[in-house]
Design brief:
Helices cover 22% and strands 24% of the residues. It has one domain: phage-related protein like fold (Alpha-Beta Complex). β14 and β15 form a beta hairpin. It has seven helices and 16 strands.
């Protein structure tokens, strides 16, 4: 079945094919692997904001250790302008011990996910870019959504108190970092007072607006267009320009802070410890020992150095296949092995994640 390359023929495949066309029955995972990764990256929202540290485990390993650093302070060398230079002899320089148990963060690459599909008549699929494009988008989107949900849950656990509706549950490392993002209890509408609270929190933390990104739920982001203070229909566009890579879900700036919108918010269901996806998440963010999880989560304010992700070597979007004779189909599995780390604390100057919540009752 040797075909003239100039013939416009729709290939059907078959066990009897020989010669130059027999390769059409063989799957080429490198081609699909690149396409799946491409679509996965395009659909990442939370993941696109994370610092990719995969290069650190390019030669193997499942843990990345990141040392914590406390802020250094400067001192007057001579004790003040009125003190003689000789004073330094009696008051020698003091050196901080960099090894004095400053601690560390650990990024564990311990998440393994996969998505699978079975396709009949693989030759026809490989000969049509449109069909291949459909399936790579589906596989890539499935991986991206799962990764985004995992990162979103880690953000939730970082800023929530007594997650899982249990008074004994440990609070997140940044629980208590909250910003009242509106002035109405039970509302998911942004107010100008909320934007003011956000800017105050940023600069009180010895940071700049450019250091952070807002990730908002769909309803909260949509509320911007109902407010005269924010709606500028003649100025909608990608204000990031060419300065940074394109981020899926980018929605402009607010108060000088980049705004991202996502529907992949995760929280632990009210009255349970089961993680669920919701476009209207809620939890306990302002106080411990609250078990009704009544506070609305409008989104997150995230420092650009807060999120870290790493993929195991060769496992960002791996593709494998085999031919299943009983169904005369080729089965494809796309999988990824990765880990995520959220850094920061409740210490002033090191607050890297804030929960944007409604006004407390």
């Amino acid at each position: 079945m040797a075909l003239d390359p100039t013939n416009n023929v729709a290939l059907a495949g078959g066990l009897g094919d020989t010669g130059v066309d027999s390769g059409l029955q063989n799957f080429v995972p490198e081609i699909w692997g690149a396409s799946i990764m491409d679509y996965m990256e395009k659909n990442l929202v939370f993941g696109a904001l994370a610092n990719d540290m995969s290069a650190m485990v390019a030669n193997g390993g499942d843990k990345i250790h990141l040392p914590k650093h406390t802020e250094l302070t400067a001192s007057d060398t001579y004790g003040g302008s009125s003190v003689a230079v000789e004073t330094l002899i009696d008051n020698p320089l003091a050196f901080n011990d960099s090894g004095a148990a400053e601690g560390e963060y650990t990024l564990d690459i311990n998440q393994a996910i996969h998505t699978a599909i079975s396709i009949t008549d693989v030759a026809k699929v490989q000969s049509s870019y449109d069909v291949m494009d459909i399936y790579t988008k589906k596989l890539g989107y499935a991986l991206a959504k799962k990764i985004d949900q995992y990162i979103s849950l880690q953000l939730f656990l970082s800023v929530a108190f007594n997650s899982g509706n249990s008074d004994s549950a440990a609070a997140g490392s940044q629980a208590g970092n909250t910003i009242i993002f509106n002035n109405t209890t039970g509302s998911r509408t942004i107010s100008k007072e909320g934007v003011s609270n956000m800017l105050e929190a940023i600069y009180t933390n010895d940071s700049n607006a450019e250091d952070y990104v807002m990730i908002l739920t769909p309803a909260v982001y949509a509320s911007l267009f109902t407010l005269a203070e924010f709606a500028r229909y003649d100025a909608i566009g990608n204000s990031q320009g060419s300065e940074v890579p394109f981020i899926s879900g980018f929605a402009g700036k607010l108060g000088g802070v980049d705004v991202i919108v996502s529907n992949n918010f995760m929280h632990e269901g009210v009255g349970s410890g089961t993680a669920v996806q919701s476009a209207t998440p809620q939890g306990n963010f302002s106080a411990d020992a609250v078990v009704d999880e009544h506070e609305l989560l409008l989104g997150y304010l995230v420092h650009k150095d807060a999120l870290h992700i790493a993929y195991s070597n060769g496992m960002k979007a791996r593709v494998q296949s085999d031919y299943h004779l009983p169904t005369l189909s080729t089965r494809f599995v796309a999988d990824s092995v990765y880990g995520c780390l959220v850094t920061g604390s409740t210490t002033a100057g090191n607050k890297k994640v804030f929960a944007l919540i409604d006004k407390l009752s």
